[in-house]
Inverse folding.
C-alpha cells in the first residue's frame, strides 16, 4: 500500500481537515461550492443564504451532494468543527 494514501479518519486533525476543505472549495471554484454550516443541532445555514433542517445526521449522512437552493457542491461544516470551547 502506498504511503501517500492516508486512512480516512483517525490521523487527520482539525487543521488538516480545514485545509482539505479549502482545497476542495478551491478546486470546485468559488461559485460552485456551497458551505453548509451547522448552527444548531439539526439546523444548517447555507452559504447562499438559506437554512435547512435535518432530523438525523449531516447533509452528507443524508446523501446530499449538492445544495438544493443554489446547485453548488455541498461542503459540510459541522458544529463541532467551528465552535470554541463551550463547556457547560
Ligand atoms: Zn447553496
Amino acid at each position: 500500500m502506498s504511503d501517500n494514501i492516508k486512512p480516512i479518519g483517525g490521523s487527520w486533525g482539525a487543521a488538516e481537515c480545514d485545509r482539505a476543505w479549502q482545497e476542495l472549495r478551491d478546486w470546485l471554484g468559488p461559485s460552485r461550492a456551497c458551505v453548509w454550516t451547522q448552527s444548531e443541532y439539526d439546523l444548517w445555514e447555507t452559504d447562499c443564504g438559506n437554512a435547512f433542517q435535518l432530523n438525523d445526521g449531516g447533509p452528507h449522512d443524508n446523501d446530499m451532494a449538492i445544495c438544493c437552493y443554489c446547485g453548488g457542491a455541498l461542503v459540510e461544516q459541522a458544529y463541532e468543527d467551528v465552535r470554541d470551547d463551550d463547556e457547560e
